[in-house]
Amino acid sequence: MATHPDVRSEQEEQSNSDEELLAGALALMTAHAQANADDRCPLAHAISGHVLQLAQQPSLSTEFRVALSILAAHWAVLAADPSSQIDPQGDHHLWHSAPMRVQ
Fold it and tell me: Which of 12, 26, 54, 84 is most deeply buried (CB count within 10 A of its CB)?
């Protein structure tokens, strides 16, 4: 019995859902890195939610889900405490200087 080409397996659907959550989290992380101080906490909250949803996906390995849970907790702290946010325009003292020459 042949299956219709438009019919996708449950595993393919789950994989797409995982990829969508990951893509959304990465897009939010990019926005967070570029955001002004007022927008950082709401973005951190959204990132925490996306990463937590991803951590609950049964299709992912246990180790990956544990790592995602830890990451979600980190973002939840950033969302709850505005003073924990680093200003990407300000804290340049933590940056490494560029090498004079690349080999």
Answer: 54
